Predict the structure.
Amino acid sequence: EMFLGMFESAVQPGELLTHIRVPAKVQASAYEKFKHPASHYAIVGVAVVRDASGQIRAAYTGAGEKAERLHRLEERLNSGQPVGTGLVDPAGLLGDRFASPEYRAHLVDVLAARAAARV
């Protein structure tokens, strides 16, 4: 698995990007983030989108090596359950002096609840 930096893509030499599909029928969306005190990049950010059919999609960033879908949150919200806690396992998350993996997992839960409430 190749690690991509924040401003890199997976397009290889000789490859050509021919299209990007972005759903045009979004009913509502929200993004919540907890800013790094120095850079203001997200220590953790959570995005929640409801499409025209009412389906919820969600993802988080900043807590791991790359952005990841929040499948647990999607399943809960799409089945009418509350957001709850334990959306991500801290074992796979980053940690530093600003936020431990456990704190980042907690931030995912808190920010997911805020974003879901706005959607």
Notes: The mean pLDDT is 90. Strands lie at 26-35, 42-51, 56-61, 68-69. The helical segments are 71-78, 101-118. The first strand starts at residue 26 and ends at 35.
